[in-house]
Design a protein that fits this description.
heterodimer; A: alpha+beta; Immunoglobulin-like; 4-stranded antiparallel β-sheet; B: mainly alpha; two-stranded antiparallel ribbon; 11 helices; globular
């Protein structure tokens, strides 16, 4: 029902437009992370207007970008010191998106010209990642630009392996008329916070239109209460943990008493 | 089925975690040990961040010590006065331990630090137990057991404020118990262990306490010090995951019952040799983890 309503609503919204336009809506603008969360599927519905028969695939391309909340990351390189491997100096990655997923009907490099890719940060290669060495740990060592680049690249590879950053070809379905849907799989380690969702409409390498929507990922249920308590009132939480442990231990002792 | 751990912030299979609790519970029931020194490395191997493994394990030891403490209280085999001094030292030790923990965590070296601490302790204790139990196993059953020499510990006799510990029937200064409690408290906070494996031998051979009060008094100290360590870890590091702790406890209590029954079928020396093997195996696995080149040379951590 909701999907149908969304499609109809978009249909009306874009019917009156004249120039080529793209509009999206989310079936659900709240994703809830609860105790059983193991990832979720997010569906973006959209409509294109102002161009002839987009469903024939006459050079129409769509890119979607989902950007998670700005996150402070740290990256360290394991170095061999004596017989063991230990982490070296900290390099801080400030304000990188906590999640970054793109979907496109074909490779982004084939869809958008390079200046656009750089301007709109389309694709993980075009994210602006700055790795700065922590000066408190190594005050005498100056960071070289080669190092900065190495750590920025390594960072993207690592978060891609963790499933947090991904460029995916596919998931874009052209539906009947001028409607389309994009299916995005959010990983189990999706961070909580405010997200932005953007879609870009291209035809023959020219940006015709774009639209944005907001998305919120929340923790809910007992899961959220535990997290909030542990971070907002850590002492109370600690005392509660001891009380729960004592009680659980007592129950266990009763259960197995002979 | 997966359960999302609220503090560790990773999804885990609850049955795997319960099973891990049961395996360690089985071993601790069989050998009569606390099991913290096996549980924490196992959690790390499973992929729980080491800092959270340590904090969570402290709370699990509180829970799994309750039944033992209750039993010893009923049998009146707890020396409260001795326990009080041990807890006093242990509380201060736990605070110092948390500061050390925080320091290494801020440096980004807590993983390496915890692994090294475990390698040293498991290696030492495993080797000692192995030597001791092999000697006992190789000794012919008819030969008389070598008499333990009753050397009086001289440095203890000169310590001030000597007092009478009624239940233990000893007359010593409270300073050695406070120092002992302190050292075990530091270990407890850094490694997520109860510390019984150090406390019990130290009480027997250094403090010369009688065997019947040693276990009860040690458990009494452990439950207080791990409770303090739990609160400190929660307050200073936010690393206590109560959901993980309860899952482990569920497996642990069941495993311990089965283990205790299995333990009655084996001889003491055989048990100790087996435990020594397990301890050395875990130690070797930790060494392997530190010396093999990592699959990926980079570590990334992030916080909003």
């Amino acid at each position: 029902m909701m999907r149908l309503a969304a499609i109809i609503w978009i249909g009306f919204a874009v019917a009156s437009a004249q120039a080529a336009e793209i509009a999206i809506a989310l079936t659900n603008d709240h994703v809830e992370v609860d105790t059983g969360f193991s990832g979720a599927r997010l569906t973006l519905f959209g409509a294109i207007s102002g161009i002839e028969a987009p469903e024939t695939g006459a050079g129409v391309d769509i890119i979607s970008v989902i950007r998670g909340p700005a996150t402070q990351f740290e990256i360290r390189q394991l170095q061999k010191s004596g017989p063991i491997w230990m982490p070296g100096n900290t390099h801080a990655i400030k304000d990188a998106p906590g999640l970054y997923l793109t979907n496109a009907n074909r490779p982004i490099t084939d869809i958008a010209p390079l200046p656009d890719q750089a301007a709109y940060h389309l694709g993980t290669d075009f994210l602006k990642i700055d790795a700065t060495q922590d000066h408190r740990e190594a005050p005498d060592e100056a960071q070289t630009s080669a190092q900065a680049e190495l750590f920025a690249k390594a960072f993207v590879t690592e978060v891609e392996d963790a499933g947090l950053y991904r460029d995916r070809i596919g998931g874009v379905e052209f539906k009947k008329g001028s409607l389309f849907a994009i299916n995005v799989d959010l990983p189990a380690n999706t961070p909580v916070g405010d997200y932005s969702v953007a879609v870009y409409l291209y035809q023959d390498g020219v940006l015709l239109g774009r639209d944005e929507a907001d998305l919120v990922v929340n923790k809910v249920g007992i899961e959220r209460r535990i997290f909030d308590l542990a971070h907002n009132q850590p002492v109370t939480y600690g005392i509660l943990c001891v009380a729960i442990s004592l009680f659980a231990g007592w129950i266990a002792a009763l259960a197995f008493r002979k | 089925m997966l359960i999302y751990l609220p503090i560790a912030e990773i999804p885990v299979d609850p049955f795997v975690v319960i099973f891990m609790g049961a395996v360690v519970g089985f071993l601790s029931g069989m050998f009569g040990v606390g099991g913290g020194f096996l549980m924490t490395p196992l959690l790390i191997f499973y992929g729980i961040p080491p800092a959270i493994a340590v904090g969570t394990e402290a709370s699990q030891i509180v829970a799994s010590s309750v039944s033992g403490v209750l039993a010893h209280l009923k049998r009146k085999t707890v020396d409260f006065m001795m326990g009080g001094f041990l807890v006093a030292g242990g509380g201060v030790g736990a605070i110092v331990g948390i500061f050390i923990f925080r320091y290494f965590r801020a440096m980004g070296q807590i993983e390496t630090f915890i692994s090294l601490a475990y390698i040293i302790f498991l290696g030492l204790i495993g080797a000692l137990m192995m030597v001791e139990s092999m000697r006992a196993l190789l000794r012919s059953p008819d030969a008389p057991r070598p008499r333990r020499k009753h050397r009086s510990v001289e440095w203890m006799a000169v310590m001030p404020f000597a007092m009478r510990f009624r239940r233990s029937q000893i007359y010593i200064s409270p300073i050695p118990p406070i120092i002992l409690g302190f050292l075990v408290g530091v270990l407890s906070a850094i490694m997520g262990v109860g510390g019984g494996f150090i406390m019990v031998p130290a009480m027997l051979y250094i403090l010369k306490m009688p065997t019947n009060v040693v276990i009860g008094t040690s458990l009494f100290q452990i439950i207080f010090v791990t409770a303090i360590a739990t609160i400190l870890h929660a307050a200073a590091n936010q690393t206590v995951d109560i959901v993980l702790s309860l899952l482990l406890l569920t497996g642990g209590v069941i495993g311990a019952q089965i283990g205790a029954r299995a333990g009655r079928r084996l001889k003491g020396e055989q048990l100790r040799a087996l435990l020594a093997l397990i301890v050395l195996g875990v130690c070797a696995r930790l060494v392997f983890g530190l010396v093999t080149p990592p699959a990926s040379p980079f570590i990334v951590v992030g916080a909003p």
